[in-house]
Amino acid sequence: MIDTQDEFNQALCMFLSRATTPYHAVGLTVSRLQQAGFIQLAQDKPWALEPGGGYFLVHNHGSIVAFRYGREVGPERGVRMVGAHTDSPCLMVKPSPEIESEGLFQLGVQVYGGALLNPWFDRDLSLAGRVSYLCPRGTLRAALVDFRDAIATIPSLAIHLDSDANRKREVNAQTAIVPVLCQTASEGMSLRDMLAMQIRKEHSGAEIEQILDFELSFYDTQLPAVIGLRKQFIASARLDNLLSCFTGVEALLQSDGSQTTLLVCNDHEEVGSVSASGASGPLLASCLQRLAGGTEAHAALVEHSFMVSTDNAHAVHPNFANRHDGNHGPRMNEGPVIKVNASQRYATNSETSGLFRMLAARESVPVQSFVVRNDMRCGSTIGPLTAAMTGVKTLDVGVPTLGMHSVRELAGAEDAWGLCRILRGFYNYAGPLSAA
């Protein structure tokens, strides 16, 4: 069990270093849950739940629901839920990606989500994802792969050839961010051949007749680290939003099992959540229906449940402080952030934020607020979508972060641990989840 901030951050960095795609994040989470005695459920089979037991189910390899079935069960007790998402902006490989240009072998990519593109240049990149293949017996299989080594890079154009680079360089997403893997050989290169070799390397005994298709993304190989003169920051890729996924899992594992507690981590948030495994899909709603056991019981369960949607927040940038509202500029290491938006881009209301503030005070963790400037566009989270799909009272919170959607982001070393303590208290909270 993780008892200190240093232990928490060390475990978080280890998770971030291995969770290079949503599929790998879910795989690592499954291993952690199974070590803690959680049992995997199937959506197409009956559930036999024991009070105090831990359970989970996986959808499309990239989304997961995990829950403890509380010893104090009943629709009137509700479900204490935490939500996050497993995906991050990245560069995904196109279906027919092979390019040979000027003696170099490259792979064409698509931009997934709202990625900041400039930081991808001159990085040591690797490749990971899911591959579908055909066995000699005609069976369809899927395998996760992660090359781990730095196998690619996207070189910048030298300033000598672009004298305006520091003033107005624009990144053309079609032509400028094509990764280079190696120099071309006379026999040519095939990504499918590379993938077949990697599957055999990572999965001993795999029999491959044909590589059928793949979902692959490049990632920066630089490892996560606690940095800064006083070690006050965590620097890593995919902090948005694997930091929240890890925090939710640890809080769930530290819950005492008295209440029914649930964690949902959806894929595809960065591209709108409209998918079978996204927050607009049926995954969470169907779980709540099965936990309730009937129509009237489901209505009561929804009425007495509560969701904390956790997704990183924008910390105020010291070089661009005017991009924040003057009274709502969250700072790193000053506590989790409650996100508020009058147009319902966040699901927070005064009742849901009130409960979170009460729980934070019990843990002696400070809390901040974020409201976007009126003259700027507001982002969103799985919070409003989850609230609309389930009818559950919902709050949007997150850890303040700099460089969001960059290839490497920055968060405070104190904030994720503080959020974990609040979520643990929320999971164990036996009182009513709405104001009297």
Give the SSE layout.
Elements: H1 5-18, H2 22-35, E1 39-40, E2 54-59, E3 63-68, E4 80-85, E5 90-101, E6 104-112, E7 125-134, E8 140-146, H3 165-168, E9 180-183, H4 191-202, E10 210-220, E11 225-227, E12 233-236, H5 239-254, E13 261-266, H6 283-292, H7 295-303, E14 306-310, E15 313-314, E16 337-339, H8 350-362, E17 368-370, H9 382-390, E18 393-398, E19 400-402, E20 409-412, H10 415-428
Helix pairs in contact: 5-10, 6-7, 8-10
Describe this structure in words.
The structure is a single chain. With 436 residues, this protein is of the alpha/beta class. It has two domains: 5-88 and 237-428, Zn peptidases (Aminopeptidase, 3-Layer(aba) Sandwich), CATH 3.40.630.10; 90-220, Roll (Aminopeptidase i, Domain 2), CATH 2.30.250.10. It has helices at residues 5-18, 22-35, 165-168, 191-202, 239-254, 283-292, 295-303, 350-362, 382-390, 415-428, and strands at 39-40, 54-59, 63-68, 80-85, 90-101, 104-112, 125-134, 140-146, 180-183, 210-220, 225-227, 233-236, 261-266, 306-310, 313-314, 337-339, 368-370, 393-398, 400-402, 409-412. The protein has a nine-stranded mixed sheet, with helices on both faces. Strands 8-7-10-5-6-9 form a six-stranded antiparallel sheet, sandwiched between helices. A five-stranded mixed sheet has the order 11-12-20-19-15. A hairpin with a 5-residue loop joins strand 7 and strand 8 (140-146). The longest helix is centred in the middle third of the chain and has 16 residues, at 239-254. The two termini are 35 Å apart. The model has no long low-confidence stretch (mean pLDDT 95).
